[in-house]
Design a protein that fits this description.
The structure is a homodimer of 115-residue chains. Chain A is an all-beta fold and 115 residues long. In chain A, 0% of the residues lie in helices and 45% in strands. Chain A has strands at 2-4, 12-14, 17-21, 34-40, 54-61, 64-68, 71-75, 80-83, 89-92, 100-107.
């Protein structure tokens, strides 16, 4: 069993968001996805992001207002959201007090089956 | 974007553990893993489990005392733990008040590369 301690993980700053990428754990291809934690401070938002990887996110602390595909959806603590490949998104933390912490796994989608 | 609402998910009881398996979301092979939330009540433990799938778990609420491979490791809220294929494990909630909520992703390990 291996533990990944969020409090001890190295982070980098991306705009106002603190990002702890799991590449630091040198897992190679043991996971079928890449992973990170990210923290959005109170009253802040993530920069707009858009990437070919599908992304599954779990709200670990706080609550997320996820803006994607022309709508904003509230995702509370414990719940999850899945972003499609190339679906642009912004994650807002509307709390004025509590940080928003998210765990995300992301991976390239499987190629469509041959016709 | 698709939301998975933990509070609205269907659950089943496995011993004292409440399990919400993601098969209910009919994602087919959109994710490269299977997934679930599970909740261990205060002062309870999960039944001993052992399976060929590798399992990555994120502690969403509370704190986990994870027993595996002859040791018990504390994994706090927000942190994560990775169980190897066929590594037997028991997850204890030592809090007398707070439930322990975990999100787990699990998948069959890739076959070893041909020699």
């Amino acid at each position: 069993m291996r533990k990944f301690d969020k409090g001890a993980a190295g982070t980098c700053q991306v705009d106002r968001v603190e990002v702890a990428r799991w590449e630091q754990f040198s897992l190679g291809d043991r996971l079928p996805f890449k992973a990170m934690w990210y923290t959005v401070p109170p009253s802040a938002s993530s920069p707009r992001d858009c990437h070919p990887e599908v992304e599954l996110s779990i709200v670990v602390s706080g609550s997320a207002a996820v803006e994607a595909s022309g709508q904003i959806v509230e995702v509370d603590h414990g719940s999850a959201f899945l972003l499609d490949s190339n679906e642009a998104h912004v994650v807002h933390n509307r709390s004025t007090e509590a940080p928003l912490v998210v765990f995300s796994a992301y991976w390239m989608p499987a190629p469509a089956a041959a016709g």
